[in-house]
Amino acid sequence: MAALPASEISASGRTSVKLNLTSLQSIMKVDPEGYSSELSLVYDQFKSSLDLFQQQAALNYTSISGISADSSVAKDLGDRAMFLAHVTPFYPKELAQFPTELVRFLESSAKSLLSGLRVQVTQALILLVNRKIIDIAETLQVFMVLQTLKDKVLQKLAFSHVIQSIRRMNQKHKNDPKNKALQNILFGMLQQEEEAIAKRALITLCDLHRRKVWCDDRTANAIPMACFHPSTRIMISALSFLLDFEKIEDDDSDDSDSEDDQATPQPQVVLNKEAMYKANHKGTTSSKKKKKAKLDRIARSMKKQQRLSSEKSNTNHSSPLNHLIDPQGFSERLFSRLQSSTKERFEVKMMMLKVIARTVGLHHLILLNFYSYLQKYVQPHQRDVTTLLAAAVQACHEMVPPDAVEPLFKQIVNQFVHDRSRPEAITVGLNVVREICLRMPLLMTEELLQDLVLYRKSHEKAVSASARSLLTLFREVCPSLLVKKDRGRPTEIKAKPKAFGEVHVVSNIPGVELLEEDQGSSDEDIDGDDSQGDDSVDLVEEDGIGESDGGGSIGSDDELDDGSDESGEDDEVSDGDDVDYSVDGASEIGDEESEDDEVLETNNSIGKDADVDNNKPKQKKRKFSDFEGQLNAANNSLRALKKLAGTTENVAASSNDGILSNEDFQRIRELKAKKDARTALSQHGFKLPTSDQLSLKRVDAATLEANIKKKLTKEEKLALIREGREDRGKYQARSSLKKKKTGGLSNREKEHKKIMPDAARKARISRTRQQKKIKQKHSDKQFRGRKAWK
């Protein structure tokens, strides 16, 4: 730092000490009022240095590296700018115009400044913005211009400052007024024809959107609009961001600690207990391993599906294509630019194709000319044909008329799937046909499907696997198109795809029928148990009466009918006792076991007297005979009042008023998980996705190719085996190791040489003989007890 002259320091009475700018800065922060004269002195020196520098610029004293061959002027100017930026918070009135002067200086002569001076002045301005002396809205345009200069240090400094300032502004809560002002500046710069300015604005917007700072619809719509910029480079940058958005990993560690991020619940998988028991206790060792592996695969697939559904429900952050205000207009404009761009490279055209297909599939748009445009590229020898076919698959959805996609579909089949085609091409063709039919099953005909399914007998593993996957799909979608021997055991034999334009309107809460079935089965079980207990009490009384009367003869059919009617009345009474106001009649209550028990009980009570049955005291089975009596008893007893309150709660819970509680929704989720587990077990882990899931899922071109591992040669296998043995020592037999042993005998060897008494030796021999007999006796028998999963 440059030292101040002694004559200038003497004005404050400090002639004996010479202070540089750093020491003076620290002293002025401690006592601002005592050093106001020094502040005015340094401020005047800054102004004079600034005027001198501008005069040199006006007289064109330039060199190759910039202005001012005299580096002392630039050094004094940078030192005093940093000094004044540090002490500005302590002298707000005296230095009120200093931030504006710095901004004007950078705006006027930033391109012609020396690199060191430019960085130093920029650091001073950043210091003022961080201390909230000047607003970021006044300096944003300056920092964006600084990023266009060919100075890597300055570019990194200005870019990081803009990003961190906007993040810090929205850290606690979203500051919408300031955000709109800053967005208007960046949007205006993005629309400029100057390529450097527009590119830096696009990079800033993309980075803020990726860091989840600006996730609003305005930013999400501004980024795709950059695809229509006159500059090809900016269009490529916007297209690449839209395509690679889902692959971008957020490098910011602070985002995980933000308040907006919520921990996703762990997926719950409910598997059948019977299947778990069979996988662990039934069959041979190899079959157990296969069953366990199957259960693991099903559990992983269900966890993945639940995780994807939870990510779908969390709509805090998603691709900018999801927030398009006018997706139809965007796709049509981009497609028209694709058709008119004859000079663009093939890679750029492929990027435009993928963005259009992604938009069409995501928003279920109708762009009929797009499918005919793809037809001229559908050939096996076409460059990047799998990427193009993936885009074609992505653009198919249930709202597109099948007639518009049928020419493209037939061309894919004719060009890829035939006997003279290579196995790789046949595999790609079958995979593309499967993915298109997954979205539009109406395209497939019976003859074509039966021809394609025959490829499952191919000797090429990739071709046969693709054909089997197509067969598995149509077993679930439309089994009627298959030959009877190829249908297998579908879950729904009469399953058919929806007609074009058909929509299933949900008229109730999804999954409420599962809750009703569960409640109905639980009520039947409870009522069956109660009626069984009541009937057993009655039968004990009736048996006693019959024995006293000496009745042991078999009655007529009329007597049996009377007994069954009375048992039905008893069931109704028991239902009333339990305060269960269910709509089902007595004939619907109970399962097969309870009905069999009633038949047995009626057969045991055949010898009873009808008059005695009519005189049975039925009041014994009622808990509360009269509701008014309950109220009177409740007025006199606190215990009765509590009991009455509990019964009324049960009545309110069991009544079907259409209002579900949190427990009901939790029960619906559990029942859905159990149903999905049963379906996954019956379908071997295959589950047909919905149209919304297919639209959100990106089609990867690598999945359309043949991913079958090639067989290794003997030399390659031996090389892999030797690689795994590098860490081991040389193999030696245990007997040879024992011979090299230098110590004494082991305990087991000593036991063999130990002389045992005759009684102990005979007892040991007899004990081993008995154990062998027991093993031989039970070797051919199995455990036939109760199953462990019930």
From TrEMBL:
Residues 250-323, 511-628, 722-790 are annotated as: Disordered. It is found in: Nucleus, Nucleolus. GO terms for biological process: protein transport; ribosomal large subunit biogenesis; ribosomal large subunit export from nucleus. Residues 747-761 have a biased composition (Basic and acidic residues). Residues 307-321 have a biased composition (Polar residues). The keyword Secreted does not apply. Residues 250-262, 514-546, 556-581, 589-600 have a biased composition (Acidic residues). The keyword Heme does not apply. It comes from the Eukaryota. This is Protein SDA1. Keywords: Nucleus, Protein transport, Ribosome biogenesis, Transport. Required for 60S pre-ribosomal subunits export to the cytoplasm. Transmembrane segments: none annotated. GO terms for cellular component: nucleolus. Belongs to the SDA1 family. InterPro entries: ARM-type_fold, Sda1, SDA1_N.
